[in-house]
Design brief:
The protein is mostly helical. Helix content is about 50%, strand content about 0%.
């Protein structure tokens, strides 16, 4: 009984800890992250990273309809 209770407690704590991972809000694309990093470097008078290139187009993925 003690092993079973320990296992349940361990699984519950693992579930709660994994549920708190991540950040709330929209995800950044690599292009948006590069633009933000460049603006932040400009504001802090640091060397500027290279200018990011805008992606060509949004290519659909075959699993998109499931999301």
């Amino acid at each position: 009984m003690n092993t079973r209770a320990t296992l349940i407690l361990l699984m519950l704590s693992l579930t709660v800890s994994l549920a708190a991972c991540g950040r709330k809000g929209a995800l950044d694309t690599p292009y948006e992250a590069a633009v933000e990093a460049r603006e932040e470097a400009r504001d802090n008078d640091e060397p500027l990273p290279p200018e990011p290139q805008r992606p060509n187009r949004d290519r659909p993925f075959f699993l998109d309809p499931l999301i």
